[in-house]
Amino acid sequence: MRICLIASSRFPVAEPFAGGLEAMTHALARELVDRGHDVALFAGPGSDPSLPVELLDLPDFEPSEAAMGDVNAPSRHWMAEHHAYLSLMLALTAGDQHRFDVVHNNSLHHLPVAMARSLSVPLVTTLHTPPLPWLESAMALAPDASSFVAVSRATAQAWSHVVEATAVHNGVDVSSWRPGPGGGPAVWTGRVVPEKAPHEAIDACRLAGVPLVVAGPLSDRAYFEEQIAPRLGDGATYAGHLDHAALTRLLGQASVAVTTPAWDEPYGLVAAEAMACGTPVASYSRGALPEVVTPGAGVLARPGDVADLARAVLEARDCDRAAVRRHAEQECSLTRMVDEYERIYAGLLDRDLAA
């Protein structure tokens, strides 16, 4: 198939990934190409040049000082993102769409959904987050113009008041996330931001008497300085923003991976990555984590309860690492995810042919 993938323009689709959305889009693009599909990728500047896909050209735009001087002017970042998606969608409606059989939108922007009706090829949007007001607005005006997939049943339920979405769990490449021996410290990975609450992972592991390594991008430096830096030491360390190889080694050596969502986590890709390395997960039972971390692969704790998370950390370390790895291979693999997306693409094409 000829597939146009729309990624987030906010962060590059490249290692080290800014978050799960970029990691998922990168893996999806590579796997689709490896399966023989003709893929074109729209992504932000700095995206991985080794991807055997096309980065769609977008013209630069700088709003005038007069325009930005308006009392209601949005930020320059907002304008750059808006211009990028408007340029893409106008190019697709002007004829570029005929290069494709299907458009798969993995962005969080409203314009691909709002302008889906102007395309002659089907557009499917994957919902990677809880509801967003701009996206709800686009869906309200064009409810039947595109199809929707959610990264978990929990995320599909969160959007159910607006649209009906099919749940397709994200997947990780289990051939590159390799199992390790374990036995080392606990590990927390992800964006270092308040809604991920790594400070609670430090508190829980300290309470459990288990050393912890925190790794991930400092997406909110003020939060890091206020909540993380003062907690470092006494068994807690920060390893930085690691690339795939270093993160795989770290997870493979860990005795347990800790996940502490302070929001309704849409999927929990970091848990899948850890389990692919054979490392069990101790996590708050929130959002999609109960779908991802099943009994035998980890232990769930009451959301926000640090003492209960300390219990989960100690219990999860006793999980059988081989069983954890098998769970990841069966339920969290990239192969399974792309199989499901291929069926969705084919179903959309069959529906269009029948129309």
From TrEMBL:
It comes from the Bacteria. SUPFAM superfamilies: UDP-Glycosyltransferase/glycogen phosphorylase. Keywords: Glycosyltransferase, Transferase. Residues 189-320 form the Glycosyl transferase family domain. Signal peptide: none annotated. The keyword Zinc does not apply. Coiled coil: none annotated. Pfam families: Glyco_transf_4, Glycos_transf_1. The keyword DNA-binding does not apply. Residues 19-175 form the Glycosyltransferase subfamily 4-like N-terminal domain. PANTHER family: BLL5217 PROTEIN, GLYCOSYLTRANSFERASE. This is Glycosyltransferase family 4 protein. It comes from Nocardioides oceani.
